[in-house]
Amino acid sequence: MDLKHSRSVKLSDGNFMPILGFGTFASEEVPKSKVAEATKVAIDVGFRHIDSAYFYQNEEEVGQALREKIADGTVKREDLFYTTKVWGTFLRPELVRQSLERSLKKLKLDYVDLCIIHVPMAMKPGEELLPKDANGKVISDTVDICDTWEALEKCKDAGLTKSIGVSNFNHKQLKLILNKPGLKYKPTCNQVECHPYLNQSKLLEFCKSKDIVLVAYSALGSHRHPDWVSSDSPHLLEDPLLKTIAKKHNRTVGQVALRYQLQRGVVVLAKSFNEKRIKENFQAFDFELTPEDMKAIDGLNRNFRYTKMEL
After folding, report:
1. Is 197 one of the catalytic residues?
2. What domains lie within the chain, and their CATH numbers?
3. Is 223 annotated as a binding residue?
């Protein structure tokens, strides 16, 4: 098996997804130019899976970074695996393609490798990312997620995306799509918050049984944005057990958290805008945790979510 595919997982549709991805979500205080620079560093280091979304509002910058790395000969377009997401304000079936086309236009790409439904909750359509009523509550929309899925299937057929999947779905929401009459393509993946404090073992088991790849975000804890994460939430990277295991292997805690996911068969996204850490994160391939390590890390689960989706 060539190196490219040995560090990839084969999706149910036959396409390959690299098992270690670079996440590009940044809070508003991070300049967009920094996201572009970090993406270029990630590609130089060896990352080939780049994860972004319409909601992140930085696809122009990420796209520019990808195109620069293609232009300078570092990678070819087919070496890269790029993910975008259809945000909740575009879940009406007639808006799905429009969302993907907006992303492609910003990226200046002909296709993406993966397009996923970002959240299973539809919101009022429009230009506002989080449309809210007078009380500050997000305004929802009534959409059958199966209709959204059908529209995404059409985007795949049109060649705008090679693979399709979902994000932030629980097993019941996944079943709605899997049991849909006339299903043409099943979701290749489900991207969810997943780390040692929220190891998603039941959802992982369910996804594996349906040949759906689990993709982990917030794998290193979280960027601790005050809108999303309470200030008293635990610091995953300060966890004593993880520190002990990291010291034993002469690794960073971040590398241990990433390696944990890789050994469970989870595709893992690592986000950092720091060059040293981006390099360190990619070295998660260079060591192995023992079965005892894995069991001990499993024991850290406390079903704790950093990302509060109060939608």
Report:
1. no
2. 3-298 (3.20.20.100)
3. no
